[in-house]
Amino acid sequence: MSRFSTSLRPIAFLILGLSTSVYANDAASDNDTDLGAITVTANQSPSQINSDKVSVRQADSIRDVLRDIPGVYVGGTNNMNQQIQVRGVGETGLNITVDGARQLGTIFHHNGRTLIDTDLIKRVNVDVGSHSVSAGMGALGGAVQFTTVSAEDLLNNEERFGGKVKSSYATNNNQWQNSVMLFGRPTDNTDVLGYVNYKSMNLGESGDNRPLGGDGEEIDYLIKAGWNITPEQKITVSAERNDLSGLYPARMEFPHNDLNSNQFNPLIDQEYTRDTQTLGYAYNPSANEWIDLEAKIYRTKIQLNNGKDAQKYVGVSALNWLSKLEIETVGGTLTNTSVFDTGSVNHNMRVGYEFFDTENQKQDAYTGKISQGESGRLHSVYVEDRLNVGNFSVTPGLRYDHYRLENPVSGSRDYDNVSKALEIAYQFDNGLKAYASYTDLFRAPDTMNAMFLSYANNTDLNTLEAEKGKNKEIGLSYSKSQLLGDDDLSLQVKYFQANYDNIISVSGPRNSLDRKNIGSGDITGFEASARYRYENWRTSVGFSKSDIDLYDGISANNTAIGRDMGAKWNVSLAYDWIGTGISAQWDSTFQRRYTSHNAEKPGYGISDISVHWKPQSGSFKGLETSLGVYNVFDKFYVSQSARQQDPLNPLTDYEMGRNIKATVSYRF
């Protein structure tokens, strides 16, 4: 794919040119972040998950990180098939990035598209619903932005070197995990981090002892380095790889079986990988508030090889699609934030540009034939300005997108669109805040599902329109401290309505699939959350409910619009023994039964209990231990985000039963 390197060249020259435009001078960053701390931020509702909470939960999937955010769901019984849904919109309608690198395209509709090691996450920004033109083209349901940790985040001013070793074990699927992270400052103005993680697991069990998941291993690494070429500018480079391999169900979204039918879904040897490289530049002169510049270029390659066992299944029609699939994307972003005043109005103006070029391909495991895929290229520019006058703010935004989709059979088509966004907010002096927002939604057609390339390259692009819509939301939030003494309270409620037109669906006979615009739909919903701390006690409650109304009999399994689910409650209670480093926590999730549109999904409730010890001083400082029981009552249930719900259907993928996890780590 040599044209990718040509596409990157002008952006790379721009970054290097900017980085050398100011006299270089040695400097070190003074930023200090606790190792393992994760900040999760949702629009208009900053929601922090600190290092203790994540460690107590012993998160090994993104579900464990995002589960407390109202409106966000993550389904899947293993890290190969976990899929994010936001307000009833699935991953194909979300903008997902890792360190600014877009996670584009669908490699196989039974797999998820988000591979990431949770131990590396520093921050997650979640736009629950689309509220800003800066979310980018394609954010029908919002955006999820993962940022990984760097050495600069982990070292304090005096430290030159540090590290962390970690080991954990989970009983349900006999999962062992061991990792090493090293970070340091070789010189006063450079920082380097290296990380490697190895995880092995066997098949797990549901609450009634049905086998689930996979029998394999996961190897992850991250290398990241930074160079402060002056006190005001920095260059960063990173290389990250996630490699999952082993025996997994052929259709990852369903459990394995040995049925003699078209539902045959055996365990087969598979490998699923993500490789991402980034080059970034930041320039923020302290004496000039007009310039806060960030530029980044990246390359991401996602590969799925489920054809290693193909010769064992020659002539088996249920598995005649085994292949090696690939999606490669290069892209870049350039943003600048300016802060200035015009009279009594304070401006926070952000201007940005985005580019990406993505293409896919498929190689048949039986014949070796390569099916050339589609490619998509985006150029996008936007501007938004938050104007503040006292307690009142208004944020208008405008974005222009130019996207070209190229098909090797039917040619190419350009899609152009101008999107608008507006948010109005007022912050009362008593801690109450009210806001209302409106955003245009636009998503040009993605490249075709890579698995379908050999028999679905006949879409007439002249008849395929872009998906469009509108997102409207109103909300209230309240925060207050010292209501009853040493305490903090935060509350939030939201009501939203999203309208979608030209919904794209993949449909037709198996060997002649096609994409078509098949109708419109609406999603309305309500979300609420409350967090309260009193002295050593912490508690939180979250609630969310979305109602999906699709016209013309649309099947949500074939569209960006997600699956109907009942209302969800999240409840958490924790206590910290001050001075001991010990904390304990109880978490529960309750999913209400869903009955509508001729479908019924049983409700369920699951609970976790865990304890954590992290000494802050003495000879054990640096040690961190966690012990937890997850799905305490061994509940037998299927996630409402799963495709199949019928208990008599062999393709219903039940969730993991009781699981006891223990983790020990040491930071030096």
Automatic annotation (TrEMBL):
Gene3D superfamilies, per database record: TonB-dependent receptor, beta-barrel domain, TonB-dependent receptor, plug domain
Q: Entry's InterPro entries?
A: Beta-barrel_TonB, Beta-barrel_TonB_sf, Plug_dom, Plug_dom_sf, TonB-dep_rcpt-like, TonB_rcpt_CS
The main location class comes to membrane
Q: Which Pfam families match?
A: Plug, TonB_dep_Rec_b-barrel
- The UniProt record lists the TonB-dependent receptor plug domain at 42-143
The record's subcellular location field reads: Cell outer membrane
Signal peptide annotation: 1-24
Name of the protein in its database record: TonB-dependent receptor
Which organism's genome codes for this protein?
Answer: Vitreoscilla stercoraria
